[in-house]
Design goal:
single chain, mainly alpha, 2 domains, two-stranded antiparallel ribbon, 2 strands, 4% strand
Length: 183
């Protein structure tokens, strides 16, 4: 006699997951979660859902591959249907809470610092510490094409900051006309 558990049916497809969360039922559920837990998770998920590029629902980074992540884990009886699945990048999926309750994942997602918030923090830091004029700062930052930002290629905001600092120092040496006027 075989002692192995029967494997659950295949998980819903990515298309089915997106369709569910974009449906009236899915949207009502997100709003109910937001209201019940005092969150704003529907905005984050709808940003990811309405992008043509594959975007992690947790961190909102563009990733070439997303994983189907259970809200309630399958080993705890969580369904493989679209209503119990969300799409995340590998890193977020690994970091997300795995517990026999549907709410911790929503709280975790809501508290996750978004890349754009982190990059704005480092951009403000770069601007405040740089000796470059506004035009010089714009030249350093604009050299980084939107497709090359960390969200698209997987480098951290801190790494982006270090690139700006080095490019800024190089520009200070090569283009003194782009320096802030001395007080």
């Amino acid at each position: 006699m075989n002692n192995f558990k029967k494997r659950p049916p295949n998980k819903a497809t990515v298309k089915a997951i997106k369709s569910y969360w974009l449906s009236d039922d899915g949207q009502c559920r997100l709003k109910e979660i937001d209201q019940r837990l005092s969150l704003n998770i529907h905005v984050r998920i709808n940003l990811a859902l309405n992008d043509e590029l594959p975007r992690c629902w947790a961190c909102l980074k563009i990733k070439s591959r997303l994983q189907r992540c259970h809200i309630v884990p399958d080993y705890s009886g969580g369904s493989p249907k679209a209503e119990n699945l969300i799409l995340m990048c590998y890193k977020c999926h690994l970091d997300s809470p795995t517990i026999d309750h549907p709410d911790p994942i929503w709280v975790w997602m809501n508290e996750l610092i978004l890349w754009r918030d982190e990059i704005n923090f480092y951009l403000e830091k770069f601007i405040s510490q740089s000796r470059l004029s506004e035009q010089g700062i714009e030249e350093v930052v604009s050299k980084v094409d939107e497709r090359a930002y960390p969200s698209a290629i997987g480098i951290s905001a801190r790494a982006m900051y270090s690139i700006w600092v080095i490019r800024g120092l190089e520009l200070e040496e090569s283009r003194p006309d782009l320096m802030k006027p001395e007080p």
